[in-house]
Amino acid sequence: MGLPVHGGGYHTIACVRSGKVLYVAGSSTADGAAVVQMTADGRTSQQWQPRPQTGGEFVLVNRNSGKVLDVKGGSTADGVALIQ
Asked: pLDDT tens-digit profile of 64-73?
């Protein structure tokens, strides 16, 4: 199954279990803003663009803020919060 496309190469990313999508809380444009799951409603803070990096990796860039999806503190532990 492909990712829903919103134009410009932006997609919503949904959890299979909950059906909710990744969303920057409060549609924030600040560094370190929380990324949570939310019911899809089409807002740009729920849209992400995969951008290729060197070495075959990708980053996900939020359409509303222009910031990348990140793991708080760069942690590798289970259950750590996602931020932008």
From this structure: 999 999 999 9
pTM value?
0.89
For residues 68 and 61, is the Cβ–Cβ distance under 8 A? yes
User: What is the SS3 assignment for the chain?
Assistant: CCCCECCCCCECCECCCCCCEEEEHHHCCCCCCEEEEECCCCCHHHCEEEEECHHHCEEEEECCCCCECEEHHHCCCCCCCEEC
Integer Rg of the chain from CA: 12
- Any idea what the Cα angle at residue 11 is, between residues 66 and 38, rounded to 5°? 85
